[in-house]
Amino acid sequence: MTGGTDTMGRPLRRLRISVTDRCNMRCRYCMPEDEYVWLPRSSILTFEEITRLARVFVSLGVTRVRLTGGEPLLRHDVAALVGQLRSLDGLEDLAMTTNALLLARHAGALRSAGLDRLTVSLDTLRPERLLAFAKSDRWDSIVEGIGEARRLGFRGTKINAVVIRGFNDDELYDLIEFGRTYQVEIRFIEYMDVGGATQWTIDQVVSRDELLRRVADRYGSVRPAPSDPTAPAERYQLKDGTTFGIIASTTQPFCAACDRSRLTADGTWYTCLYAAGGVDLRELVRGGASDADLVEHIAGVWRRRTDRGAEERLALADRNTLYPVESLRADPRREMHTRGG
Ligand code: SAM
Ligand code: SF4
Ligand code: SF4
Q1: Which of 14, 94, 219, 306 is 20–30 Å from 5 (CA)?
Q2: Which atom of ligand 1 is nearest to the CA of 25?
Q3: How many angstroms does the Cα of residue 27 sit away from the middle of ligand 1?
């Protein structure tokens, strides 16, 4: 069985699973506050519960799963979860997004457990900027993790860099050169006004068009490279063959092709990154629902899906932060670090 399509004809193909809401960094575009409300420990799904839900999603047509957070490598023994998910029939791609502070230590176990791909978040090549912007003095550990992943044979590693005017927009070329050196593809991400980005303002967003202009100023012609039309990144190629991507969620949303949904660490399922509320699957799982009940419930929600959050944000005349801090404290699942980027 598949989950069918939603009201806009979009199938359910990708699932992002946030395995923890905790993080060992404090990126200013994601976790700028001094204090956070955390999900209660007792509400966090076990690996068995996550795997059971993932199996149900795969039976509904999901072929690609990405583990995220928070920082997924903070979840104890996350490689064991990778191993459990890897055994699901029908799962074609199992990836992880990580800040890589702990990657050098865990890359071997992740690889042995069957993780297919890694995306590493790295916004700056200047350690002092990482300290100022993300409160981490361990820039070296990130780069060590990227090197270790390559040494172990991970292919197709990508680097996510959120570009913020006045912070790192003078590092575009350095990041492209870094990608070339480490044989990883850089993806520039437009700063998004997601929950948690309480310091977001439109003037800090560097748009796709501006990014392309600035890269072309330096490298000459930039032409489109083959891209998966359902993936968030559009890919481009420089004259020498170097490729890079741009994720233009803020100025050029791609809701029309969105086949993604997200599961939080406490089992709440969101059909849009911007959705105010989600579906409590933990209650069903712990309440004794059968797999058939779960399939019916999830497929029903997907069939009724109307989400196009980023397009709705774009249409706003006066665009400001999505939620005030009080609203995030009242429902921490509205935070990007809880919902999973
Ligand atoms: N902690 C892991 C990491 O940073 O890779 C995984 C979770 S993080 C929420 C996933 C992705 O969301 C990261 O690549 C991060 O850069 C991105 N992200 C977080 N807040 C964002 C924002 N306001 N705008 C754009 N991207 C954002
Ligand atoms: Fe940064 Fe990821 Fe942590 Fe958010 S969850 S603060 S993006 S490392
Ligand atoms: Fe998909 Fe929602 Fe993001 Fe649009 S805003 S691409 S519907 S998750």
Answers
A1: 94
A2: 1
A3: 8
The predicted-structure confidence for 84-100, as pLDDT tens digits, reads as follows 999 999 999 999 999 99
> What domains sit in the chain, N to C, each tagged with a CATH number?
14-339 (3.20.20.70)
* Phi, psi dihedral angles at 17 (to 5 degrees): -115, 115
What is the position in ligand 3's atom list of the atom closest to the CA of 258? 1
Q: Name 238's bridge partners.
A: 222
Ligand 3 near 178 CB (within 6 A):
no
Q: Which amino acid is at 232?
A: P
Does the pTM surpass 0.70? The reply is yes
Residue whose C-alpha is closest to residue 249's, from 208, 219, 282, 198: 208
308 lines ligand 3 (CB under 6 A): yes
Cα of 278 to ligand 2 centre, how many Å?
21
Query: Could you give the maximum distance between any two Cα atoms of the chain, in Å?
Result: 60
- Whose structure tokens read 């520039």? 188
Beta bridge partner(s), residue 77: none
- Provide the token pair at 189: 């991400």
The mean of the pLDDT values for the chain is 97
Closest by Cα among 86, 168, 81 to 133: 168
Q: Half-sphere exposure of residue 97, counting CA atoms within 13 Å on the CB side? A: 21
Is there a contact between 225 and 243 (Cβ–Cβ < 8 Å)? Answer: yes
The CA 274 to ligand 3 mean position distance, Å, reads: 7
